[in-house]
Design goal:
185 residues; two-stranded antiparallel ribbon; 69% helix; TPR repeat; repeat
Length: 185
Amino acid sequence: MESPAGSCKHDLFHVIHKVPAGDSPYVKAKHVQLIEKDPSRAVPMFWAAINAGDRIDSALKDMAVVLKQLNRSEEAIEAIKSFRHRCPQESQESIDNVLVELYKRSGRVEEEIEMLQRKLKNIEEGMVFGGRRTKVARSQGKKIQITVEQEKARILGNLAWAYLQQHNYGLAEQHYRYMLLQLDL
């Protein structure tokens, strides 16, 4: 039997290393990714978690991030497209965020723009943040409050950057100006 002090150390380990507790396929994959730092070995373990139905949304997003780190963004995009339908509705927005980054990394600017425009439309229709005006997000490991206006400005800035990549300077300027208006609110 583990002593209470041993249990506390065990829990602290998971908090410090941001690894969930347990021995499920997803937990094992996270351990390989974050503790053993073996992304190549973590990928098939995330696949195993997805196939086992273990935290599918988290496993899919984490696997996509690992594939991106391994310069396998195209594979990550296809995985998300193939399995996102098995993820809960509340995780779709964060899956979209991962997909935008993958499109950017892959140079798939048209698809990046399409996804960003869809995200912008969702904001304008009030379909983000679960109907609330703010959400808690992570930025550089810290929890921060983000307003709908800040999220809209972020997406507009990303859209402007994507249009710059296409040398569409007029649309880029238009989106940057609109972004600045959002930040003045």
